[in-house]
Design brief:
Layout (H helix, E strand, L loop, with lengths): L11 E12 L2 E7 L14 E6 L17 E6 L2 E3 L4 E7 L9 H8 L5 E8 L5 H5 L3 E7 L3 H10 L6 E7 L14 E7 L6 H7 L7 E8 H14 L7 E7 L5 H17 L1
The protein binds flavin-adenine dinucleotide (FAD).
Length: 267
């Protein structure tokens, strides 16, 4: 499996084919264009960026060469090159100032509307998941659900472990296809079930573990302390990332994320 970061985004314009409410707080968007026939290979966790202008709209024609569009990151839930379709599952979060161009567009966009995307980008190599861990531990909130769903459906049938996924409400639970030995536990924000408490309460299994975590920034830091410091999971056997930060739009979150990662690695 080849992984590389999204160093050179190559924008392309797609058309919204369908936009459906998957669960009360998640919409499924299918984008299409003939050019997807030669879209690069994707892997679980691979992502694209949706591009917007400063008004949060999708028309980039007024942007000068120097101006960068605003970008919002979404995991690729499915790529169907034969039918030239790319599927994204987008969390519907907040209202007013608590929402942003990504969720706003997904909430209102109609089939036939164009949007530019960049990517794909890929997650860093995960040694334990690629080489075959003794067990797996997936943890995420709703923003990580599309990526976790892709991982779970791609794992070898004999895989064992846990997947803890936090969604807003009981109605946001989705059917997932996963090996029988991977116990899927759903937590509900509305029931005030804490992701970190539930993670730390689960029995630690013997052998090499492959850990994969994506969620809100502060939660990510709490879980990183648990997995890296308390459980001593080696760097190459864990992917842990914040997918958003409470109170910050993505442009500011990525700055915090970079600084935080540097500080953590510096010890
Ligand atoms: C690699 C990667 C893959 C991702 N994959 C997905 C995916 O498949 N589906 C998906 O929905 N998201 C995904 N995300 C998260 C998504 O990029 C962020 O939630 C992004 O901030 C949404 O943009 P926005 O324009 O809606 O809000 P922004 O303009 O970025 O933020 C506006 C406000 O909304 C708040 N906010 C942002 N996201 C959330 C949230 N989820 N819940 C509550 N408040 C929020 C911010 O704190 C801020 O106050 C992914 C992120 C990364 C890094």
């Amino acid at each position: 499996m080849v992984h590389d970061a999204m160093s050179k985004p190559s924008p392309r314009q797609l058309t919204l084919i369908s936009n459906q409410l998957l669960t009360p707080h998640m919409r499924r968007l299918v984008l299409g264009d003939e050019s997807l026939a030669d879209f690069p290979d994707v892997y679980p966790g691979s992502y694209i960026k949706l591009l917007f202008n400063a008004q949060g709209e999708t028309d980039l024609s007024q942007l000068s060469q120097e101006q960068r569009p605003a970008m919002r990151t979404y995991s690729i839930r499915a790529l169907d090159r034969l039918n030239a379709r790319l599927t994204l599952d987008v969390v519907m979060h907040g209202k007013g100032h608590e929402t942003g161009p990504g969720s706003n567009w997904a909430a209102t966009a109609k089939p036939g509307q164009p949007i530019c995307i960049a990517g794909p980008g890929h997650l860093a190599k995960h040694a334990a998941l690629e080489e075959g861990a003794d067990w797996v531990f997936f943890v995420g909130d709703a923003t990580a659900l599309p990526a976790i769903a892709c991982y779970l459906q791609s794992l070898p049938a004999q895989t064992v472990g846990y997947a803890l996924i936090q969604v807003k409400s009981v109605d946001d639970i989705q059917p997932l296809s996963a090996p029988a030995g991977v116990e899927i536990r759903w937590l509900q924000e509305e029931a005030r079930q804490s992701l970190s408490e539930q993670v730390m309460a689960l029995p630690w299994l013997p052998g090499r573990v492959g850990v994969w975590v994506a969620c809100e920034f502060d939660m990510m830091r709490a879980l990183r302390g648990y997995f890296r410091n308390q459980r001593s999971v080696p760097h190459q056997d864990i992917y842990i990332s914040s997918y958003w930060r409470r109170g910050k739009p993505e442009d500011l979150h990525v700055i915090d994320k970079r600084e935080d990662a540097q500080q953590f690695e510096a010890g």
